[in-house]
Amino acid sequence: MGLAEASLSSMSVPLIVDVDGTLLKTDLLIETFLALLSRKPWKALLTLAELRHGKAAFKARLASLAEIDVSLMPVREEVITFLRAEKARGRQIYLASAADARLVTALSEHLGLFDGVLGSDGKVNLSGAAKADALCARFGKAKFDYVGDSRADLKVWSTCNVALVAGGRGAWRSAIASGQPGVVEIIGSPPRLRDYISALRPHQWLKNVLVFVPAVAGHVLMSTWFGSVLAFVSFCLCASAVYIINDLLDLRADRQHPRKRKRPFASGRVPLIHGAMMAPVLLITAFSLTAFLPRVFAVVLTGYLVLTTLYSFWLKRKVMVDVVALACLYAARVIGGSVATGVLISQWLEAFSIFLFLSLALVKRSGELVDRVNSGRGDPGGRGYRLTDLPVIESMAAASGYLSALVMALYLNSDAVMHLYSKPHRLLLLCVAVLFWTSRMLLKAHRGQMDDDPIVFAARDRVSLGVGTLCLGLVYISL
């Protein structure tokens, strides 16, 4: 049966719509748990104890503690369009979900399409057979049409008049066709491979090239390439796992952001449960690779994971602590490259990294504030910064960046350089390049043209790539 035929059903037959995965591209249970986990992680973990009283009690507890905005939830536009057409015909439409009734009611009030709602009440988990029984008791067996999307809806489909499958999952047609007179498919867009790849944020892997810095600075890249590459892959996998976790915890903020709302999890293109499974797999793989590197590398990678997790849960909301944490995360990659290859980093490189990475972290924050100013939005929520802080942050970014150039100048006049280069005086031009690049990055951020992490931006910026090539040329002619 096609969609057009489904609309010919009698107006006296009510239309029942599922929520999770059907009306919404997301799952309200996972949404509420993640929302609570991002704000009050210990309280979220304690709510798991409610499972001993049943899933309905667990959902009720989460709904009472979590703060979510149902108006931000990603909806299936094809389902909304179909429901509006049915509503225009005068058909009664009801929401029936296994989610807590309070959340279902809030969603119904927001959309304004429904004549009533059914949801879990803290005692009965309205899913599968329980939902089928409740609908049959209220409307009568085979006296309602039902829109669902998953195996959990099979029991309901077997008792309804017309079964409608949402979400583009045509495979369900054969599973339910034998139980009803007709099956209707509301075509949608299933998750695509590129959506999953996008969730890994592969463009952010560019920051992990910092693991090659010790080998390049020590002129031993060719003899240590295996360790550097393995460290690079480990950091990429670990970083992707953390990005997924961060995206899952930042759903509300991302959906309010003009660009971040298009991310795979915020937009609903990739199910949240898939992200929850991807993160541990990536972490296990990342740490499995450390078996081929010195043991201390696993310690560094663990420290990176702990710090970035603390950043996601807590540190990113602390003024200035967040930028120091970001600078440390940049530095962790350099340290990781050092221990993976056995190439010691000098105190000069450590000092240079401290100032440069702090500058880049401040540039990142200033760029975010400039973006809010230009878009007419207020102070960033949950970050601790104010728009009036922008001039101070820009000043600190400039000071830290210029100090990194000063450290480089002092290093280039040290005895260590004399042993590595035959014409070290030529390297002083590197200071000019660093000053130019730092100043340009500051100006780009101030103009609102810094639309990503500074290192990722630089890797895609032709001028920055040109400066990098010039620096490599200067090093070569100074050998």
Structure in words:
This protein has 23 helices and 6 strands. It has 479 residues and is an alpha/beta fold. The chain folds into 2 domains: 3-186, Rossmann fold (3-Layer(aba) Sandwich), CATH 3.40.50; 193-478, Orthogonal Bundle (Tetracycline Repressor, domain 2). Helix 17 (321-341) crosses helix 18, helix 18 (347-374) runs parallel beside helix 21 and helix 21 (429-446) packs antiparallel against helix 23 (462-478). The radius of gyration is 28 Å and the shape is elongated. The relative contact order is 0.08.
Order of helices and strands: HEHHHHEHEHEHEHEHHHHHHHHHHHHHH
Side-by-side strand order of the widest sheet = 3-2-1-4-5-6
User: What's the overall average pLDDT, rounded?
Assistant: 86
CATH architecture of the largest domain: Orthogonal Bundle
Quote the distance from N terminus to C terminus.
75 Å
Regions with pLDDT < 50 over 5+ consecutive residues?
A: 1-8
Structural class: alpha/beta
Compute the CA-based radius of gyration: 28 Å
Supply the number of structural domains. 2
Pick out its properties.
single chain; 479 residues; alpha/beta; Rossmann fold; Tetracycline Repressor, domain 2; 2 domains; six-stranded parallel sheet; 23 helices; disordered N terminus
Kindly summarize this structure in a few lines:
It is built from 23 helices and 6 strands. With 479 residues, it is an alpha/beta fold.
